[in-house]
Amino acid sequence: xxxxxxxxxxxxxxxxxxxxxxxxxxxxxxxxxxxxxxxxxxxxxxxxxxxxxxxxxxxxxxxxxxxxxxxxxxxxxxxxxxxxxxxxxxxxxxxxxxxxxxxxxxxxxxxxxxxxxxxxxxxxxxxxxxxxxxxxxxxxxxxxxxxxxxxxxxx
Length: 155
What we know:
alpha/beta; 13% strand; globular; Rossmann fold; Ptyr_pPase_sf; single chain; Ptyr_pPase
């Protein structure tokens, strides 16, 4: 299954989700993209991944038009409270929304912002681990949809 994690800027949450999922499984392939990608991956996103011993080589902000494959599943990560609306992928694919606060938008000291990135990482890790533990590759579309809803509700 090709899984696309999608945000507006593709610099924090979607990048971390891509790296976490790819580090955890060889059964699925994760990608990330943005509707308006940032010029760079946020340095704290990379620092957070590295602190958890997850490889960051090759991670960069990219547009969804540059994906090497058509995704089977698109998971948006934007917070409903964000000032920029979540992008909508215009393809015939299964979709899910895992609302998350953007850690780069936290107005705090460097220490506070790093804590926000750690919190985002932990939530992504929890949702991705739950997703993988239920072997989504063996689920019917309605079962997969239920699993995705369960992942979304994890805090």
